[in-house]
Amino acid sequence: MHFNSAGAMTMPSYKLTYFNMRGRAELPRYIFAYAGIAFEDRRVEWKDWPSIKKTFPLGKLPVLEVNGLPLTQSLAIARFLAKEAGLVGNSRLAEAQADALVDTLNDFTLLIPWREDNPQIKTQKIDMLFQSHAPKLLDHLQWQLGDREWLVGDSETWADLYWHVCFTTFRVLRPGFADHHPALCGLTDRVEAIPNIAKWIQSRPTTEF
Amino acid sequence: MHFNSAGAMTMPSYKLTYFNMRGRAELPRYIFAYAGIAFEDRRVEWKDWPSIKKTFPLGKLPVLEVNGLPLTQSLAIARFLAKEAGLVGNSRLAEAQADALVDTLNDFTLLIPWREDNPQIKTQKIDMLFQSHAPKLLDHLQWQLGDREWLVGDSETWADLYWHVCFTTFRVLRPGFADHHPALCGLTDRVEAIPNIAKWIQSRPTTEF
Ligand SMILES: [Mg+2]
Ligand SMILES: [Mg+2]
């Protein structure tokens, strides 16, 4: 919250710039949706990117502008918003556990060979990733979840939302990847059942990734 | 702080497990040193690692045990400690800026070809990294620093400590890498002049990385 010159509380203005895909902007978008915070969801066309790239720090997206101040790094942006939304965890230990889960999910997404040009090699690399790394990741997440409803503590955090974001993309790559981890599929369902998240998933632009 | 059964405040017990190198444990160690918090600095010998690897979540280090509870992911561990040490930044925006700088420095360290076996190819790859990526990184950091003393706001944060950790390792790889960025070298000097950090650097085990 901020106060304008008349002393009235005003919400900060939020502009999130990324491409027309879920990608690295989708977690911030989920958190905006969850918290019911209005934001400008600016989606740059690929043809326009070369001419505006230099206007962004390090020439990278996403960037979140908060009252015009640019914040970089998707996870730093998401954590900033998760604090506003009350989604970071209920204690310092819980916050650290959520941070670690987010980083662990992110480490896996960084192993996906997005930029491999040869389609056969790309398929092979994705197969290997989902055969060798994914089961360890899923076992770890299922262990962390235990028989609770959410990954950290007794209520949802941004780690649960990030699980859903990642699940959605992993499922595009290898549809049955989580079939042997029913507890995690249950978590997916619980995130989807959050009304504001359900509404966002219904209304967002449809893109493959 | 925690309370024991007699009601007296007790410090949590901290055990940080990693290898005998700076690597991904050095930022948590700097924060412990900065805050004057006692911790067990457990350094696993390579020969012992295969037999104990399975006892750590995802088989990875570092792990910080807080009263026996294991926390994973070096940056989540560091952020947890930075909160205890008052090093995360003085506002939510400052916290997000520090988080983003840490992630940006970390992104660069992830590009270093640590596991390249061929020494000639390794040299080539490191040369390319320091010729193509490093100047952009350093320009960005120098822009973020501006004419202030610290990277975020008016006082030191864990982003400044991480700069020093990274600087120390980058300098081993390419000694003159920051010569054209005197403001950043000034920042290095300021971090080294923090008495508790100076003491840690003096007393820590000497390792190449
Ligand atoms: Mg990591
Ligand atoms: Mg990143």
From TrEMBL, chains A, B:
- EC class: transferase
This protein's record includes keyword Transferase: yes
Query: Which UniProt key words apply to this protein?
Result: Transferase
Query: Which Gene Ontology molecular-function terms are recorded?
Result: glutathione transferase activity
* E.C. no: 2.5.1.18
Key word GTP-binding present = no
Protein name (database record): glutathione transferase
Q: Write down the species.
A: Hucho hucho
